[in-house]
Design brief:
With 426 residues, the protein is of the alpha+beta class. 29% of the residues lie in helices and 27% in strands. It has helices spanning 19-31, 70-84, 95-103, 118-134, 177-187, 281-296, 305-310, 338-341, 344-360, 409-424, and strands at 9-15, 36-39, 54-56, 107-109, 113-115, 138-140, 145-148, 154-157, 162-170, 191-192, 195-205, 219-222, 226-232, 235-243, 246-254, 263-273, 301-304, 334-335, 370-377, 382-383, 391-393, 396-398. The protein is globular, with a radius of gyration of 22 Å. Bound molecules: flavin-adenine dinucleotide (FAD). Flavin-adenine dinucleotide binds next to helix 1, strand 3 and helix 10.
């Protein structure tokens, strides 16, 4: 932990150094003389800024429509770019794909996007933190906020230290949704949490998904709320992320300077909105994740498309046979049977979307393609905001993916700016 002596009062405290927290910190530091404390429990901001770091600069990618209109998002995206300084990827020859997609009732969004890569992201983050310190922000890394005090504008750190504030912005991200719920219960803030994205991660040889040569991360929207998400190529790998009680798969890639492995991966996700009587999307995701833990002996599962089509489980002994001519990048996934683990409605809609995709970019459903399960995105608690600046109570703001105000790096940053705009206009 850094040797930083914290004050016992700040005009603004920001919890979480993800893009939402960083966006808020820069906006406040560059536009006021307020005393600011940015607190992060880890050594370095986690999430997408650290992993892969693909930045989308086209509305509505990452911007939940219930909170964002194009005109607000576009203005703030320009501001985000002044800090993240994106080098945009090129996008070529996609008209033929768009035409094929239209015939199938599928939308391909044309997105301005920059990619940093997991090997380069810590340099970017450390540079941003250094700039904040130069602007006079106190940055406390490896410092965890234990809780807020319900009846006073104070918070307590894990160390027991109590710090008072005039305004606080909470941007704890998705992973700490339960911590956020406890704080909202304390503050008397109402919230709902009924949405979850469930899906698979698809991995294949680049020659079988050649669209990535023209469009780095194709955003494709299928019927029944299924979409592609987070495509990785170049030196692309699949990873297992630990959540409370289960693993979710995810994908990332390294920068262009690294040697390519000629594989591509992307997620195919279906958004589920639960209604009474089961309303917790987070709980639903956890139950499905736990089921896979049981079936796989404590991991995630994978199946070759060839086996899936034949209705037979994939097996370790035959996973790399004959047509199955590349090895999975996630070596500790267990060869198994997707249809034994996924709810029928989700599997049906995702398989139907994959078949459409195979007509748009022929090759995706080559027998060697691997389907990993589960990829679970437990979105946010959705607090009841009292104004347009994500305030939930006088002096308290909740932003970023953990509050459902964003679904990606640039929108999270923009939601931080928007909260501070509310404070500055007071
Ligand atoms: C592996 C991975 C890869 C991703 N790749 C991309 C991508 O390429 N492009 C993209 O747009 N999106 C990506 N995402 C999504 C992206 O990470 C999120 O949309 C974005 O980071 C949300 O920002 P945030 O600031 O709301 O939350 P986060 O980035 O999650 O940041 C929240 C921070 O708060 C800290 N925190 C939580 N509780 C406390 C506490 N009590 N005290 C102190 N600190 C606390 C956490 O440690 C964390 O660093 C990815 C996500 C993951 C998990």
């Amino acid at each position: 932990m850094e040797n930083l002596k914290l004050k016992n009062y700040y005009d603004l405290i920001i919890v979480g150094s993800g893009p939402a927290g960083l966006g808020a910190a820069f906006k406040m530091a560059e536009n006021s003389d307020s005393s600011i404390l940015l607190i992060e429990k880890k050594k370095i901001s986690s999430g997408g800024l650290r992993n892969d770091c693909k930045q989308n600069y086209t509305y509505p990618v990452g911007f939940p429509l219930e909170h964002w209109k194009k005109e607000n998002a576009d203005v703030l995206l320009e501001e985000v770019a002044t800090h993240l300084k994106p080098k945009m990827e090129t996008r070529l020859n996609i008209d033929k794909y768009i035409k094929r997609a239209e015939k199938l009732g599928v939308d391909i969004l044309a997105i301005d996007q920059a990619h940093v890569g997991t090997d380069k992201s810590s340099k970017l983050i450390n540079g941003l933190i250094k700039q904040l310190k130069t602007l006079g922000v106190d940055v406390a890394l490896e410092t965890e906020v234990k809780e807020l005090v319900s009846d006073k504008k104070e918070m307590i750190l894990e160390s027991g230290e109590i710090i008072a504030f005039d305004n606080i912005i909470l941007g704890p991200g998705r992973a700490d949704y339960d911590w956020m719920q406890e704080q909202m219960n304390k503050l008397g803030v109402e919230y709902s949490y009924n949405i979850v994205d469930i899906g698979i991660r698809v991995e294949m040889k680049e020659e079988n998904y050649s669209i990535v040569k023209d469009y780095y991360d194709p955003k494709i929207l299928f019927p029944n709320k299924v979409r592609t998400f987070c495509t990785n190529s170049g030196c692309a790998n699949i990873v297992r992320e630990k959540y409370k009680g289960y693993y979710s798969v995810n994908g990332h890639s390294l920068s262009k300077e690294k040697k390519a492995n000629n594989l591509v991966n992307f997620a195919m996700l279906k958004t589920i909105r639960l209604t009474e009587p089961v309303v917790s999307g987070q709980q639903f995701g956890k139950i499905l994740g736990e089921m896979v833990m049981q079936l796989s002996g404590g991991s995630v599962i994978m199946q070759r498309v060839g086996d899936f089509r034949l209705g037979q489980r994939s097996k370790k002994e035959t996973f790399n046979n004959d047509l199955y001519d590349f090895k999975p990048t996630l070596s500790n996934a267990v060869a198994a049977d997707l249809s034994l683990s996924m709810p029928a409605k989700i599997l049906r809609d995702i398989w139907s979307a994959l078949k459409k995709l195979d007509s748009i970019v022929p090759g995706v459903l080559h027998p060697s393609t691997i389907l990993y399960y589960p990829e679970i995105k437990t979105y946010s608690n959705k607090p009841q905001f009292v104004n347009d600046n994500f305030m939930v109570k006088d002096g308290y703001y909740i932003i970023g993916d953990g509050a459902g105000t964003s679904r990606g790096i640039t929108a999270a940053w923009a939601s931080g700016i928007r909260a501070v705009n509310g404070i500055l206009s007071k």
